[in-house]
Each structure stands twice: as structure tokens, then as C-alpha cells.
Design brief:
Blueprint (H helix, E strand, L loop, with lengths): L3 H7 L6 E4 L3 E5 L9 E5 L11 H22 L2 E4 L15 E5 L21 H11 L2
Antiparallel strand pairs: 1-2, 2-3, 3-5, 4-5
């Protein structure tokens, strides 16, 4: 498999491993957006979160929960980001959670700054989406 994260898990590519569990691993991002940028990934290759088993998902986000306290201690604020699929901006097709320390001067902005404008929906469009997404 030609997945950089799978190669890190196999030990073929070196990484600064921070914590490893039975199903997940966290390490320093090799191309950090900020000092202390951490990635948390499942050991098994999955492109999207919904492809993971319940056990893998629980393990992954338990490790996120553990690591976020360490990352948050660096600046007092942490961006938690998952790009779930190529169209969502996922660059490596292997589930990964970014933990990026944030500060007032980092120029990263809010989630709304990632998009050109705020979407305006009609009441019928909102109702249609509500029906499709409600569980």
C-alpha cells in the first residue's frame, strides 16, 4: 500500500510517536501548521470515519481526548480538525485527526473563513435537509 500513514505505522517511515494504543497512534506532524501540531490516526487503513469499526472509532477518539490536553497546554487553545474524504480537503486518504495549537496571532481564522460566503437556504431547503439528516 502506498499510504504514508500506513508506512509510519509499519515503521518504514520514521515519526515522532507520542502515544500508541491497540488501535491508534499519535505523532508530531512532519509538516506542522503550528508548533506542537499532532496527528492521531487509526492503525488500520480507513479513508473515512464511517468506515471504521465502533471499537476503532472509540479508541481513536479516546486518544484524541488524551492528547488534546497536552496540545492545549501549549497555547491554551486547540483546533481539532478532520477532513473526511478528498472533497472535504483530505490530502492523505487515511483517517487522521489534526490537533493544532492556536493563538490569537496565528492568522488561521474561524471555520467560516474557509469558505467564500455564508450559505443562504430557504425554509423548504432547511426542512428537506432536516428530514434527510434526522435520526
Amino acid at each position: 500500500m502506498d499510504c504514508i500513514f500506513c508506512k509510519i505505522i509499519l515503521g518504514d517511515i520514521p515519526a515522532k510517536i507520542l502515544k500508541e494504543t491497540s488501535n491508534s497512534v499519535s505523532f508530531l506532524d512532519a509538516f506542522p501548521l503550528a508548533k506542537g501540531h499532532v496527528l492521531v490516526i487509526p492503525k488500520n487503513h480507513h479513508q473515512k470515519i464511517q468506515d471504521m469499526s465502533h471499537e476503532e472509532n472509540t479508541d481513536l477518539f479516546s486518544l484524541v481526548h488524551l492528547m488534546i490536553s497536552k496540545v492545549d497546554a501549549l497555547t491554551g487553545a486547540t483546533l481539532v480538525a478532520v477532513h473526511n474524504g478528498k472533497e472535504a480537503g483530505q490530502e492523505v486518504p487515511h483517517v487522521h485527526v489534526h490537533l493544532v495549537p492556536r493563538s490569537a496571532n496565528d492568522s488561521a481564522g474561524t471555520i467560516h473563513s474557509m469558505f467564500d460566503s455564508t450559505l443562504k437556504l430557504s425554509e423548504s431547503e432547511i426542512e428537506e435537509l432536516y428530514k434527510k439528516l434526522k435520526i
